Amino acid sequence: MKKQILFILILLVSVSVKAQWGQEDMDEKPSFKDRLFTGGGIGLSFTNYSDYFSISPLIGYRATNKLAVGLQFQYRYTNYKTISPSISTNDYGIAPFVRYYIYQPFFLNAEIEHLNYQFIKSATEKFRKNYNSFMAGGGFFQPAGRHAGFYALAMYNFSYMSSYNSFSPYNSPWVFRVGITAGF
């Protein structure tokens, strides 16, 4: 985990600022297409305990210079190697979000995530459950060209339950994400 955080910090620091994305686009009345942006993230992890893959594409709309809304989709695959035979799980989710830029490059973010996930009850049993989370926090956006950039986001999951019996899809109330966005 420490290596991943270090890699992310180096990546964010090494990207040079080429434009304040969003400022020049919103001076005139931009078209609907100019207000759309896409992006997302990919996650990979390989350990002695499990293999993990996630993909989370997003699509958004910049309503104003400071306000954006959108949807983020999520798919997660986990293969648990310590259980014999190994068991894999698949999770699917969607999260409408709202993002408000308080001061470039910093923003506030809130979302309601609906996640349909599998959890392992025993070595031979797995179950599927729906889990709704309200998450809010802040982030940083680093432009990389006229219509693209990198983002880092930290959110607190206000719906987090730490009880073992709750079968939460998260092992912490804190959710960290990094990704890219691109305009059309």
CATH architecture: Beta Barrel
Uncertain parts: 1-25
Structural class: mainly beta
How are the strands of the biggest sheet laid out side by side?
1-2-3-4-5-6-7-8
**How many angstroms does the end-to-end distance come to?**
33 Å
Helix fraction by DSSP (H/I, runs of at least 4): under 10%
Count all strands and give the number: 8
Separate helix tally:
2
Keywords:
184 residues, Porin, 9% helix, single chain, mainly beta, 59% strand, eight-stranded antiparallel β-barrel
What is this structure, in a nutshell?
With 184 residues, this protein is mainly beta. Helix content is 9%, strand content 59%.
Write the topology of this structure.
Blueprint: H1 2-14, H2 32-35, E1 36-46, E2 50-62, E3 67-80, E4 87-103, E5 106-120, E6 126-143, E7 148-157, E8 174-183
Antiparallel strand pairs: 1-2, 1-8, 2-3, 3-4, 4-5, 5-6, 6-7, 7-8
What does this structure look like?
- With 184 residues, this protein is mainly β.
- The chain has one domain: Porin (Beta Barrel).
- The protein is 9% helix and 59% strand.
- It contains two helices and eight strands.
- An eight-stranded antiparallel beta barrel has the order 1-2-3-4-5-6-7-8.
- Strand 6 and strand 7 form a beta hairpin.
- The chain is elongated.
- The model is unreliable at 1-25 (pLDDT under 50).
